[in-house]
Amino acid sequence: MRGAMRRPAGFTLIEVAVVLAVVAILAAAITPMVLRQLVDAKVEATRQEARLLHEAILGAPGASGFFGDMGRWPASFDELLRPAPGTPLFTTATFRNVGMGWKGPYVNAGATGEDILADAFGRPYQGAPTGQGRSAGPDGLFDTADDMGCPPARASP
User: How far apart are alpha carbons 59 and 101 in whole angstroms?
Assistant: First the structure.
């Protein structure tokens, strides 16, 4: 009695091709969702940072902010981190002991020191002279529908 022919162990080329095709289809279907999640996370982080910049300029509950200490809008967001040359530092030796002068830093700059001055997309914020924290959003162009800012319009003291 002759033994039955045994098939060699392993996968055929067709089986491997089918598995690769299924994996490629799944990857193509999942990739846009993952990319959308990444963009959404950057948008939310940018909105929060813009709000923090606005609060640093105008003040938050219990803090006067740059405008309250200096009596003017900052020329740039850099003034929230360090005083401009010639800027008077905070003192209460003014009229009726009301304090005035730079009392910053007004934002926590983190470990790198400059992260707060750029949005989550790596582009600098705009709007310091108007009291806003504005980002161009995901497309990188200002005055388009995806712009983000706090407040949405120019602040008025």
Answer: 14
Query: 66: buried, middle or exposed (CB in 10 Å: 19+, 13-18, 0-12)?
Result: buried
Q: How far is CA 102 from the centre of its chain?
A: 25
pLDDT one digit per residue (tens) for the chain, 157 residues:
565 677 777 889 999 999 999 999 999 999 999 999 999 999 999 999 899 898 889 887 777 888 888 888 898 888 888 888 888 887 766 666 667 888 878 888 766 656 778 888 989 998 888 888 899 989 988 888 888 888 876 555 5
Q: Give the three-class secondary structure for 18.
A: helix
Q: CB burial class (10 A; 0-12, 13-18, 19+) of residue 139?
A: exposed
pTM, full prediction: 0.74
